[in-house]
Amino acid sequence: MAALRIANGVRMGTAMALLLPLTVAALGGVVLQAQTPAAPAAAPAATASKLGTVKAVEGNVVTLLTDSTKETVTVTVADGAKVLELPVGSTDLKAATPGLLSDIAVGDRMLATGKAGDAPGGFTGLRVVLIKSSAIAEMQAAQQADWKKNGLGGIVTAVDPASGTVTITSGAKKIAVETTAKTAFKRAARDSQKYEDAVPGTLAQIHAGDQVQARGTKSADGLSVQAVEVVSGAFLDLSGQIASVDAAAGTISLRDLATKKMVTVGVTSNTDIRTMPTQMATMFAARQSGGAATAAGSASAAGAGGYAGRRGGGGGGAADLAQMIPRMPTATLSGLHKGDAVMIVASQPAPGSSTVTAITLLSGVDAILTANPNGGMSLSMSLGGGGGGGDE
Predict the structure, then answer these.
(1) Which of 5, 56, 223, 325 could form a disulfide with 381 if both were Cys (CB 3.0 to 4.6 A apart)?
(2) Would the CA dihedral through 380, 197, 168, 346 be positive or negative?
(3) b or e along 190-229 (b: 16 or more beta carbons within 10 Å of the residue's beta carbon)?
(4) Dist CA 212 CA 309 (whole Å)
(5) Are 67 and 173 part of one and the same domain?
(6) How many other CB atoms are found less than 10 A from the CB of residue 163?
(7) What is the spatial distance between Cα 344 and Cα 239, in angstroms, rounded to a whole number?
(8) pLDDT in tens, 179-216
(9) pLDDT at 236
(10) Are residues 123 and 228 in the same domain?
(11) What pLDDT, in 10s, does the model give residues 35-60?
């Protein structure tokens, strides 16, 4: 399963919209609420607002990377401007406490309401609402632990809209993900597995073959979960040996082991390319096959093209592999060659196109694919930093 990369393991929605950069639509409700008369400090007569992450602070001048435009804006905090500190998880200014200009620090999430500044591109902040980066870090650590303990993932085999139950397979298990009206749904972006790029979703968007990550209360036997959050997405798992590399076009081609069809894969500047060291791949393969895999055997089978691929959950081993990927050496398209064994998580092709785009590409996996002759492992991304995505 090419499972979602839930990097922070936090519940998204209006309550967290100040925390992570979401879409403009998701942030709109937060901006409006931040300007409501119910706030302890009356909202200034503002004509605009800027929301983003603090990149630099010098005196009363704050450099802000905005969520909406992904551009830096210079915010001059006006004399007498109110500074409020909001707890993580709240968008109600009744919960805010008074702060100081000196409290603003790099990494903080900041909402400035005010007006255009005198200088072109400048902005004058008449009120500033902060969520401190230190509080965000503490919350993320707690949420990551919760995803690791209470999260799971798999490939969707059935959806029952009437009961709100999504059935997934994870390794050899069939798990019922039970949802309610209170369950928070997120849908992954077409070209990203990152949790922070996901947008609000619905149960109706989930279909057979999709991947799902869920967090909630698990049953004692682990065969069901009452989900408080469900993140879904549709990606492609590809694996096999590279047939050709076209550096000028930024593509590679390979015969997908599951479909036995040739696939053209675009490799962009956003593709996360990693190389698994040979010793690590051999040890991982041996672990997956109960110690039967050897370096010599892997090399022999690789030379014979002895690989097989599958769609589906990768079990606990896949979750372990996912945790290893960020620590592996990075690589480039120029370092890939014909005959290299690769595992790829790719986006669905755009309408009218037959080329898929690689999101994550891992080379050096000869031993792993060889050790799984009945189904190559996928690049399953573990929940909240690890652990939740496979069998336990």
Answers:
(1) 5
(2) negative
(3) ebbbebbbbeebebeebeeebbbbbbbebeeeeebbbbbb
(4) 20
(5) no
(6) 10
(7) 6
(8) 999 999 999 887 777 777 788 999 999 999 888 889 99
(9) 85
(10) no
(11) 333 344 454 445 789 999 999 999 99
